Amino acid sequence: MATLLGSEFSSSGRKRRNCNSNIVTKLTSSKITGEGFSRGTQLPGGLLQERDKPAKWHGIPDLLQKLHESSHPNSDLSHAHGYLKSLSSQLSVEAMSFVTEDRTKAQESTFPNTYTFDLFGGVDLLVEILMRPTLTMQKKKPKMNDELVKDCLSVLYNCCICTEGVTKSLAARDDFVLFLFTLMTNKKTFLQTATLIEDILGVKKEMIQLEGIPNLSGLVQSFDQQQLANFCRILSVTISEPDIGNDDKHTLLAKNAQQKRNASPSRAEVNQVTLLNIPGFIERLCKLATRKVSEATGANFLQELEDWYTWLDNALVLDALMQMATEEAEQSSTESSDESSLATSPLRHRLPQSMKTVHEIMYKVEVLYVLCVLLMGRQRNQVHKMLAEFRLIPGLNNLFDKLIWRKYTASNHVVHGQNENCDCSPEISFKIQFLRLLQSFSDHHENKYLLLNNQELNELSAISMKANIPEVEALVNTDRSLVCDGKKGLLTRLLTVMKREPPDSSFRFWQARAVESFLRGATSYADQMFLLKRGLLEHILLCIIDSGCTSRDVLQSYFDLLGELMKFNIDAFKRFNKYVNTPEKFQAFLTQINSSLVDSNMLVRCIVLSLDRFESQTEDVKVMEVLSECCLLSYVARVENRLSFLFRLINIINVQTLTQENVSCLNTSLVILMLARRKAKLPFYLNALREKEYTEKYPGCLLNNFHNLLRFWQRHYLNKDKDSTCLENSSCIPFSYWKETVSVLLGSDRTSRCAIVSYIDEPFMDLDRDLLED
Fold first, then answer.
1. What is the rounded CA–CA span in Å between residue 275 and residue 234?
2. Are 643 and 715 in contact (CB under 8 A)?
3. For the purposes of burial, counting CB atoms within 10 Å of the CB of 47, is it exposed (0-12), middle (13-18) or buried (19 or more)?
4. pLDDT tens digits along 203-250
5. 268 CB contacts (<8 Å, ≥6 apart)?
6. CA–CA separation, 198 and 160 (whole Å)
7. Mean pLDDT computed over every residue of the chain
8. Mean pLDDT over residues 500-505, rounded?
9. What's the rounded Cα separation, in Å, for the pair 274 and 46?
């Protein structure tokens, strides 16, 4: 034993004070090096018992040794189960403490029992016991007791949440991860298995490949609706691209480089295809997302909901409670048995009827997230077709008032950021996922008209007829049997709650994004007028000018929405001028625009494009009247103001800091210059940029930066069909003219008055020559 433990006495005869510490050190070392004893159960039982009390191990090593001895192949596992239950009772207390006290980090000092269990090989032993049936050579595999399997899984999960490193070590074992999926076929062990898998996949370095799961299609088809909803929690990890977590990695420069390195589809994309190939999968998700909930009503309902989601923010606890209620319901048909069972449980809490509603909401959050990710993937059109066929949108419309946006105001409304993974209540998560789904569904897709009902579709047709313009082809082709039912469509319902939202509500961001996505793409006058008639423009201006809103995210979403709503629409500019009817209001509006051009540049682009079109319609009396009266159009018509926008747009970005969020600044600056080129004023603008440089005493800086940005633009957009289509549709400028203008600006002929190089003096030429070099 000396090689592992060291002698009990030193050479001078003094007894070692840290014998138990030595055991721990050696066990820890063996885990790292693989040398020495592989687990604590190999130590003499007498030694473990002797050191147990001084080391405060609470008999865990001794119990593990007995568990090991009683769990050999072909042995009666009833004794093993008894030892495991004794261990589980000690560990579950620490796990519940972790859940209820909202601890952020597992520490040995906080959870000593779980730490001791893992140190002495408990985790490895349980994995061994679980997987033992798969190692037998017998044709008929031995079946383990369901309760034993459940307890093994529960203890493993407790170790994962309370002991640092356990989850990662389990995630590294691909054989065990795939084996866990086979346990999901058993309804009695499904919940514990799903919860453990979710935890493991969350830390796994490499994303699991769903096609590697044995008989995945049969497994998914065997799930009932509740199991399928739970399975969506697992799927969300397997179909989402991993978050890199470093802002520098999110730059377009880095993303383009990564795309070159990884030309083949990612694992997440492959997993999406695997899911779509499972018969009936999308149809069942649509049914889950749209099924109705029998919810309790009454004065105390809202307070119950607040109280319970404050405590039950852990899916494991919530599902465990629901499972207890379900099992009790199977034994007795009375509601009182549910409550008496829970009243005598260790949690000492009653399960209110409203918990069923929260449970259903949490399920729908996961289902909507999976559908949203699939909608944004490469198989978008296939997914769109199925969601329309299975009437997802009409189903959500029927749930809107009763579940999605019930008419109440939470007492402690949490204002949170736009991150879809934010740690917030089920109610808030549900609303955000719903809005994100609408945004993905409507964005640049003809199925967006399914958000309306038949009466509203007729209204669009009437608007087009009155304006003497043809109906949009997508509207004509809409299958009216798949649109919303009832008096209002989903878009109209969303507008109603949007206008009622408190000024500081974080939902404003997502609501504006969802409505904006309906307008994005080729500009539709009828779509704009449909929303203008419902007071959307006035609501947006109220939020920007009068509500005191300071959130940059919300303001950006409202600026973007306002741009899509007003673009090329003379009636919208007339309404704007009617609302912004004083110099003070107009100045307040300009202040908001100028406070962050990254946020407002899409609106600036809309105004510039609209002004250019209106100036070509001089024969239209209505247009000329608005042109002469509208303060916003008059402001942008002044060259000095357009130049001011151009200076700042170029100055606030560079190639290294370009992201999907701010690349629009580059495109807006290009729009200003393309329109100038059309009127043969491009040299004037370029010369103004040069003069600005010298005024600021930074010759060459602005123009070299712009030159580098345009070089990047060529590499980025000439290889991305979707982006180029979006640019063309949103500006009504052919993409060929975009490319041609960029080529002219990047021309190498220093005698050309339209080439940037001719405005940069030789000493200041190519300050960042190697910036884009491979």
1. 12
2. no
3. middle
4. 888 899 999 998 999 999 999 988 999 899 899 999 998 764 444 447
5. 207, 238, 239, 240, 241, 242
6. 11
7. 82
8. 82
9. 54
Among 114, 151, 113, 161, which residue's Cα sits nearest to residue 129?
A: 151
DSSP alpha helix (H) spans, 467-524: 473-476, 490-500, 507-519
Range list of β-strands (E), 10-119:
none
Token pair in block for residue 678: 């059309």
CB 161 within 8 A of CB 98: yes
Query: What percentage of residues in the chain have a pLDDT greater than 90?
Result: 54
Alpha-carbon distance 154 to 164, whole Å? 17
Encoded tokens for 226: 């509740």
Here the tokens at position 84 are 């495991």
Could you report how far apart the first and last alpha carbons of the chain are, in Å?
A: 60
CA distance 449 to 462: 15
CA atoms within 13 A on the CB side of 412: 8
- Please give the C-alpha separations between residue 678 and each of 247, 442, 666, 667, 682, in angstroms, as whole numbers: 38, 33, 19, 16, 8
Q: How far apart are the C-alpha atoms of 251 and 432, rounded to whole Å? A: 26
Contact 201, 166 (CB under 8 A): no
- Among 12-16, 111-115, 632-636, top mean pLDDT goes to 632-636
pTM for the structure as a whole: 0.83
Question: Per-residue confidence at 616, pLDDT binned at 50, 70, 90?
Answer: very high
672 near 597, Cβ under 8 Å? no
- Note whether 747 and 754 are within 8 A (CB): yes
Pick the range with the lowest mean pLDDT from 79-88, 615-624, 736-745.
79-88
Residue 548, classified by CB atoms within 10 Å of its CB into exposed (0-12), middle (13-18) or buried (19+), is exposed
Instruction: Please report, as a single letter, which amino acid is at residue 769.
Output: R
Q: How many residues does the chain have?
A: 774
The four Cα atoms 643, 647, 653, 659 give a dihedral, to 10 degrees, of -10
**Measuring CA to CA, how many Å separate 538 from each of 513, 535, 548, 561?**
17, 6, 15, 12
Question: CA triplet 118, 123, 124: central angle to 5 degrees?
Answer: 120
- Label residue 763 exposed, middle or buried (CB < 10 Å: 0-12, 13-18, 19+): exposed
Q: Which two tokens stand for residue 90?
A: 């000690």
Of 675, 661, 686, the C-alpha closest to 731 is 675
Range with the lowest mean pLDDT among 86-100, 508-522, 555-569, 722-736?
86-100
- Residue 345: DSSP 8-state: S
Q: What kind of architecture, by CATH, is found in domain 36-100+109-206?
A: Alpha Horseshoe (1.25)
Residues contacting residue 259 through CB under 8 Å, at least 6 positions apart? none
